[in-house]
Amino acid sequence: MPRVHEKYVTQYRAVFVVNCKIKKGLVSDEGSLKRKRVRKGCDGGGSGGGDVSFSPVCCSVCETEVGVIDDDEIYHFFNVLPSEC
User: Fold this and answer.
1) DSSP, residue by residue, the chain
2) pLDDT reported for residue 28
3) In angstroms, rounded to a whole number, what is the distance separating the alpha carbons of residues 85 and 78?
4) How far apart are CA 56 and CA 46, in angstroms?
5) Does pLDDT of 82 surpass 90?
6) How far apart (Å, rounded) are the C-alpha atoms in residues 22 and 38?
7) What would the pLDDT profile of 10-66 be if each residue is shown by its tens digit?
8) Does residue 68 surpass a pLDDT of 90?
9) Contacts by 29-32 with C-beta closer than 8 Å and gap 24+?
10) Cα–Cα distances in angstroms (integers) from residue 78 to residues 4, 44, 48, 85, in the given order
């Protein structure tokens, strides 16, 4: 079940998704994203500090980029509508 972002109502995160594919070979770091999401408690205490990388996630039907997936395999979606399958 997707969880809505606390501040931005058009952003969601999920672990299990459908109709999405990861663009392999393309990796972005956190600073290069146009729209980034900062998780609570992510600033400290982790090994590697702010070394978070993301891979683009696209719709498997129309190839539109709908979000990113992080190193923890959590999907972060932007400007999408959730669907209950």
Assistant:
1) --EE-SS-TTEEEESS-SSEEE-TT--EEGGG-SS----TT-SSSSTTTT--EEEEEEETTT--EEEEEETT--EEEES------
2) 64
3) 19
4) 23
5) no
6) 21
7) 788 889 998 999 988 777 655 444 444 444 444 444 445 567 789 999 999 999 999
8) yes
9) 29/53, 29/54, 30/54
10) 10, 25, 26, 19
Please choose, from the candidates 21, 25, 24, the residue with its C-alpha nearest in 3D space to the C-alpha of residue 57.
21
Q: Exposed, middle or buried: residue 61 (CB in 10 Å: 0-12, 13-18, 19+)?
A: exposed
Half-sphere exposure at residue 60, Cβ-oriented, CA atoms within 13 angstroms: 6
Top-confidence residue, 78 or 32: 78
Two tokens, residue 43: 């600033």
And the tokens for 61?
């039907």
